[in-house]
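Below is how a single chain appears once it has passed through the pipeline. First comes the sequence as given, then the structure the pipeline wrote out for it. We keep one example in the README because the format questions we get most often are answered faster by looking than by reading.
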Amino acid sequence: MANTKKKNKKNNSTSKSTRNNTTKKETKEEIVKELEEKEVKHKEYVDGEDTTEMTLEDVDEINVEKEDNKIDDIISKEITEHNNHNTNNNRVYVRPDNYKHPLANMFLILVLICCIIYFIINIACKPISSFTGILNIVLITLFSIVFVGIGISTNKKSKNSIVLCGIFLLTFFMVNSLDILNIVKVTSVTRVEDFTGRSLVDVVKWAELNNVELDQEYEYSDMVEDYKIISQSVKAGTKVDGLKNIVVAVSEGPNPSKEVIIPSMVGWDKERVINYVTDNYLSNVDVEFVISEKSEGTVIEQNVTGNVKRNDYIKLTFSIGEEYNDNEIKLIDFTNKSKFEVDLYMKENRLNYNTIYDFSNKIKRDYAFKQSVSAGSMISPNNEEVITITLSKGKKIKVPDLTKMSMTEITNWIITNRLKVEFNDKYDDSVKENDVISANKSKGDIVEQGTVIKVVISKGSLKMPKFKSFSDFRDWADKYGIKYEIKNEFSNSVKSGEVISYSYNTGDVIKNDDTIIVTLSSGEKVVMPKVIGLTKSQAYNKLKSAGINYDFVYSNSKEDKDTVINQSIKSGSEISKNTTVTITLSNGKGTTQERQSSNNSSSNNNSSNNNNNNNSSNNNSNNTTPATPTCVQKTCTVPGSIMNVLNDDPSYNKTVAWINGTLASTCPGLKYRIVASTDSGMSSGSIVSGLKARQTLTTCSTTYTFVIAK
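Resulting structure:
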């Protein structure tokens, strides 16, 4: 039995080896067919059928094949599961072509919302200077809307590029919106805008935002609407950095004194004349009606044609027809009729009337809004009852509390009520910067259209700036009404006329009533030597070595020629180096001898008197101060800045301080005195006489007298 098993194992091994070799050579179909035949035989054998044909070797071979098949199935199943696992791990999800990208679309909608907000902020909060500016904003908005629409409707697998562009747009809208609202300040070079044709309110806002001082000048203009900007002193596009002041010319409407060319209106009818007078702003046209054969209601004569001013007197004569009409007429409604139309109607119908002015909140200036006889009333020519026509002088304007309003609010109020405004600024430590210090009209005052409102704006606490020269300091102090006093000191290191020190350091706060002490250098100190009695050359050497300038002049004297007989500065005086002194030299011609000769020619009877006179003459010659020397004139000019002092709330002390400070630096050595006048009738600080801008003064003339109102 054991041998049989060994034999079977051996046979199995042999059979397996044989089968493996055979499968290499057989096709898959042949193997499957063979297995099926063997399986049928095995079944018949087990069931007892055809046992004679099934050998033991066949049975063993069939069992081995089944075991091999099971092993193959297990291996195949494991390989399949392993492959499936790897396939699942490496699988890539592929989006369909029509994927909607919900997150990207939501982001694009956010971009659209920011775009709309940006558009609203630009229109509502930012003054737009031109049509180009409006067009740029509109185009950006339209582009963004189209971009978002295309981005949402596009069904691409990827919208990375669209989202990236959306991020750029969103950043642009957010940054610019925050910049306009002053929440975030974008660092950029600020430039002056073009204000031509824009409202004065826009300029005031811009000046406040950029801390630029704004000056306004009002000019007439037929082309530019009231309170619109005609021109500006600083060119548009100029960098704001370092800009201190800008002046704008503001339109106040047509010039009533402008010269126009008046054509011949003979033959014109009333309507044509009315239109011409209105369109050309003629304000002094008179009419009369006379009997004439000419067409009724037409001009038959006028007093002037050609170049005339708008407010010049112009008289037009109309034809009333061949006879007067004495029938009753139905009075018209004069509401919104101009004064010229009222005059024309009343004179044509020979009605007695007069005109008065009153406030009206609805009817514009110089137009009728009330009549004493109601419209539609029947009235006869040459009526006894005088018809009163009330013309408007504009609306009744009640002044608010300007001290509680900003510059922008005041400007809006001015424009709305057709007033004029002058802004001035002043340092004031008690009023916050940019707040109103004072105004020439108080709360509750009633004013008419065209009234000039003067407003003083605070520049806040005054801090001592840094000045390059005394002239710069003086101009600054005079402009803002800063009190200052001048002291002079000798200095070996600071040139004459330059500032040694100020009583305040740069950056120090100066209170409203404080006075700044300015110490000016008188130059290096030297002592005037005594040169009287010296010769010209000796005096020259002595003055030169002392650093003193000189002028030599000659005078009659009994002293030897070229001997110093007088000096304009007393010896021992402390003076500035390079000061000019006048030295008087003798010309050798003695006046005493001439007098003595003249006396000796008298009669002998008078000899006693002559001797006495000679003695007296000799005494006088010794005691009399030599004649005043001829001075070499030096001139200086009064600065034009004196007008700033007189125009900016002058006072007596302020004007005197200006005169002393200015003349000390520009006209050293000038002789003058200041006299206070209390009965001149002029405001305190005004110059009554003796001094004016650009006046030439000389240092060798007699003492000037400056009369100042006090």
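The chain has 16 helices and 33 strands.

See the next section for the split statistics.
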